[in-house]
Write a structure and sequence with these properties.
By secondary structure, the chain is of the alpha+beta class. The chain has 16 helices and 14 strands.
Length: about 475
């Protein structure tokens, strides 16, 4: 599928930086309580001095030529000063609209060598989370991160009613499913819009593949470190990177799972579907789905690409009209779909929705939520750390980490389709699941609007 997780991630990650070995999206603090908003004073510490300079850069009050002088040597080895300067200039002028950037919140920190909180643009109201760490010896920056908090700006909807009113104006069909997860696994709806709609979900279907694989490991029929070789006939189109590996290259199942979820690698996904077995994935999905026949046979991404991009336009039409046994025959290695490779040239010209109401992976918001909850439940069992790492590596969008712990996320899209689904652990111990879906069979849907509206829903849950 033409998946956009990477573009969604790019919207969320406005500045690519890493401190002292921590991955982007991690927070070394936990359990802290945010300070009150209202022009908090910048601390008179080494990190505070660098924060004052950082605000000046974002507000175009400091020269980009000064960037290198504020970076520790260890940080320069990770990112070249000129590149960081370019990124900061983009954040200030484009993301923050030219500023000025002001402190919206400062978080309590255990060390004078770190400062974190929220920044707000007085030009366009955009809110960003940030943290800065400095070397104790020199006071120079050795780690820096800032992420847009989508849906947190001044013009973002602050209530479910405001959000629904905005969504009503979008073309196509949109659902929102937000629920609290009880200790016994019960989902208690908090807000549901268009709850009965089953829309195409794009790569969110990969939660079913992860769950089926995890169960296979738990049954002793596979292990996370078991090698699986790349096969040319199982390669798909991007997103991802495993399609670039030569046939015969072996990687552990844990790596396939990590890349399938965290960067939505299509080739990793299709290898896992073939390894686990299509019918086993179908059986797993059927336990969590109200109308599983919509997703049977359970397509690989390669098969979807092949039908939607085929020069023979009747291939997809014949598949849509066929019964399940005929469809399985078409997907078999010697079938019309199975023996055909995706058309790379056609992919470059894929600009409009194609059969999104007939050839996709269909779920309601609640079904996406249940798929996420079950995948997370299995991942939390002993021995399934690779599954948990896969779910919680990519948060999808920027999160306020003083409100939320590290979230589980899976999203997906093709032209005309987007889905964003999270399991959100709030710092007060309450757990929520959220799924946002938008399909339009006539036109592409907007990544930017999707992350803004979904981010607004996350913010409303945070204030619930």
């Amino acid at each position: 599928m033409k998946h956009k997780n990477l573009s969604i991630l790019a919207l969320a990650m406005s500045c690519l930086v890493v401190p002292r070995g921590l991955a982007i999206g991690q927070s070394p603090t936990s359990g802290a309580v945010p300070t009150q908003r209202g022009d908090p004073a910048i601390p008179e510490s080494a990190a505070g001095k660098q924060l004052a300079w950082f605000l000046g850069v974002l507000s175009a009050g400091s020269s980009r030529d000064e960037v290198g002088a504020h970076m520790a040597e260890s940080f320069k080895q990770f990112i070249e000063p000129g590149r960081l300067a370019t990124q900061l200039e983009y954040v200030g002028t484009t993301i923050l609209g030219g500023g000025p950037a002001v402190i919206d919140r400062l978080d309590p920190e255990p060390s004078p060598n770190r400062v974190s909180g929220l920044i707000r643009s007085e030009a366009n109201g955009v809110v960003m989370s940030f943290w800065i760490t400095v070397e104790e010896e020199t006071g120079l920056i050795d780690g820096l991160s800032n992420q847009v908090l989508h849906g947190a700006g001044a013009t973002a909807p602050k209530t479910w009613e405001e959000l629904d009113a905005r969504l009503e104006k979008l073309p196509g069909e949109v659902y929102v499913y937000a629920a609290e997860l009880a200790d016994d696994g019960t989902l208690r709806p908090v807000h549901v819009r268009n709850g009965g709609a089953r829309l195409g979900t794009g790569s969110t279907f990969k939660l079913y593949v992860l769950g089926a694989l995890t169960e296979m490991v738990m049954e002793g029929r596979a292990s996370w470190e078991q090698p699986l070789a790349i096969r040319d006939e199982w390669k798909s189109l991007p997103s991802g990177e495993m399609h670039l590996l030569p046939a015969g290259t072996e990687r552990p199942l844990s790596e396939y799972a990590l890349k399938m979820i965290s960067i939505s690698d299509n080739t990793a996904t299709d290898h896992l579907v073939m390894f686990v077995g299509r019918e086993r994935v179908e059986a797993y999905m059927s336990r969590l789905h109200g109308e599983p026949t919509l997703n049977i046979p359970f397509l690989t991404t390669r098969e979807l690409f092949t039908m939607k991009l085929a020069l023979d336009r009747t291939m997809a039409e014949r598949y849509i009209a066929a019964d399940v046994p005929t469809r399985r025959a078409m997907l078999a290695p010697d079938g019309d779909v199975g023996k055909t490779a995706p058309n790379m040239l056609a992919a470059a010209f894929w600009k409009k929705p194609v059969w999104i109401d007939s050839i996709e992976w269909f779920c309601t918001g609640e079904e996406c939520a249940r798929a996420m909850v079950e995948a997370d439940r299995l991942a939390a069992l002993p021995g399934n750390e690779p599954a948990m790492r896969a779910l919680r590596t990519n948060p999808g969008i920027g999160m306020d980490r003083m409100v939320w712990k590290k979230p589980a996320f899976k999203g997906g899209s093709e032209v005309g389709v987007i889905n964003l689904t999270w399991l959100l652990d709030r710092k007060d111990g309450r757990r929520f699941v959220l799924s946002f879906g938008w399909n339009d069979p006539k036109s592409p849907v907007s990544d930017q609007e999707s992350v803004e509206f979904a981010g607004a829903a996350v913010g409303i849950l945070g204030r619930n």
